[in-house]
Design a protein that fits this description.
CATH superfamily of the largest domain: Spore Coat Polysaccharide Biosynthesis Protein SpsA, Chain A
Domain Glycosyltransferase 2-like: 5-156
Radius of gyration: 34 Å
Protein name: Glycosyltransferase 2-like domain-containing protein
GO molecular function: CDP-glycerol glycerophosphotransferase activity; hexosyltransferase activity
Largest sheet: 5 strands, parallel
InterPro entries: Glycerophosphate_synth, Glyco_trans_2-like, Nucleotide-diphossugar_trans, TagF_N
Low-confidence stretches: 135-139, 312-320, 336-355
Helix content: 25-40%
Length: 355
Amino acid sequence: MPRFSVIVPAYQVQAYLPACLESVLTQSYADLEPIVVDDRSPDASGEIAGEYAARDPRVRALRLPRRAGAGGARAAGAAEATGDYLLFLDGDDTLTAHALRAIADRLKETGEPDVPVHAVAHAHRDGRVERDAAGMVLTEFLRPARAHYRRYRTPGAAVRPAGRLRHALIRFGLHRTHRLLRLAQAAAGRLAKAAVKAARAGRSALLRLHYRVQLRLPLRADRAVFAAHRDRSHGYHPGALEQAFRAHAPQVRTAWIAAPEHHHTVPPGPRRITPGPAAYWTALARSRYVVSNDHLGLVKRPGQVFVQTRHGTPAQAQVVPLDERRPVPSASAFARPPLATVPRPAAAPTVAERL
């Protein structure tokens, strides 16, 4: 881990960036990592950063996907930094000779403060140099926090188990350990998100494979599956047809697709199916009859009967014919059951229009 991470945001500074980077790389204190952040600069700043990164392994060049401004570029560079201390240097500024050596020595003399604030000098075009009269000032954050913690914490106050370690680190002034813990927690969070994303992708792939296998198996002539708009409760036209199936074709086993919060509306008799799992795709692939007033995102296979009902007046079409294309839904359907509705059929012409 380097001692200093020097963050250099670069936007339209191609005339100054080489001098800036040279002032960093020629420092007598070499334990550093320069990070140049190309803030989508329209000039050659990004190319210059890439050339320095290829020439010196300590230099890292980042290119932002979109313009973020100076603050956003600094934040992006800080997120990639691994040094003990961050030092922000604009692309049109330079470090004076031995600046990092002086800062490192001062840090050691003052007992490793959390935040060093160093002096600056303003160089004008006419050659004048104005130095900051305040000089080098070192300030701290965690040490006052430790003192306040010991002074104001109520004895016996409950601390949540998840925060006990951080409380202990602040109490004993273990600043670097506290920072490493935060970095580890952030890395664990990113790893958890990546794991969830990979698990979802794997589940979708397995469901696609399962559905394709089910399409190759024979239809079940004694099965019928029903669904209402957006996986809602039992009812509407599909609900009436499901009751008719049970009354007039008892040899056909019916099933109703509904979200878990609507399972209680399904009467005794039909099987309850939750959208998404393998059982859902098995029912859609192998049931001879599929009845819905919503668009399920599928097309029928040979021998399968699809009945799609609609709400409305008798003047509207109540059955929408489905084409005979290949019965394979889109990949996104396996990640979450589709909720899109069928376009509304055109209304029947009035008597006046016929005349």
